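Hey,
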Amino acid sequence: MKESAMLELTETMERLEAVAEALEQASERIAEQQVALAAEAQQSVGRIVATVATAREAELERRLAEAEQKIAELTAAAAPKVTGRVTLPGGMATMLAKQGVTLDVSGGFPSMEASAIDGALASLSIEQRIAVKSELLRAGLLG
């Protein structure tokens, strides 16, 4: 009986070794599959991130184009428009007339260069010259 028990024990041990070897092989295959799945998942995540980044960039480009268009519209709206009658304060018109700058009879003023007006404004202080030139610019008369 001892021999039969030993034989049974040996057979059981051999079966256990075979099962252990099969488990090791299965474990190796699972580890390989896990590495392959991780690589595939990493690629998928990369594609998803790239898609999201591309969509975000497109949204930012669209918003930038809208902002640039709005800026252009506001700039155009803020540009000074001289239409119709242009008037100067009476004192300024008198001072320019005394210095030899002639005005049209119809009430319109010729466009004047800043350098041409400097001679007429030579008798004024620097602050007064700046004020006169600013007024002429606002009226659209200074080119």
